[in-house]
Amino acid sequence: MRTFVVLAVSIVLVGILFCPMVMAAPSSIPADLQIVQPDPSLPKELSSFFGKWEGRGRMEYFLIVEKIDEQKASLYFWQSNPPGGGSGWMRYEAQVIKEGREYKLWFQFHLSDTEVTLKGEELDWSAGGFAKTNIRFKRVPLS
Question: Which domains are seen in the chain, by residue range?
């Protein structure tokens, strides 16, 4: 009997810990997503931002760079349990900034200056403001 109780409690605890992570991901991509392949003449350092990215930290995050050129990028962002409640995809327009041979995307996110840079095969998200946030994103299939 004691073994059964320990086993039952263990199963419940594992379910409580891992179920929210599975349920947190968005069920689908935005209905009005307009994927536009980068122009082949764009530098690889810039066109590499294009696509869908997933990040994890205190929450789960998704970032889709749906269109990019040398001046701006169209972004969709999703996070689990955002501050203020609600959830869903949010659209942003980012400025493309070139510093030397590197590029970064800059935009306002929840009243914070936010920069997204490429670090090898990952995106690095850095937001200032009241609560500084750093998130590492990895490329995932667009589906």
Answer: 1-143 (2.40.128)
